[in-house]
Design goal:
This protein has 44 residues and is mainly alpha-helical. It has a domain of 30 residues. Helices cover 36% and strands 0% of the residues.
Length: 44
């Protein structure tokens, strides 16, 4: 069984590296339970 979710976040950050770092931090601290979940980040 596989379950997934998509969370889309709009940021005001214009620097791609800083935006990716900010979203990764959000995932680690709030959005994903890293003990049992994995996640990926796409910055467009």
């Amino acid at each position: 069984m596989r379950q997934g979710k998509v969370i889309e976040i709009d940021l005001a950050e214009t620097d791609k590296a800083r935006a990716e770092a900010a979203v990764t931090e959000m995932c680690e601290k709030l959005l994903a339970n890293t003990v049992i979940e994995s996640y990926s980040v796409e910055v467009g």
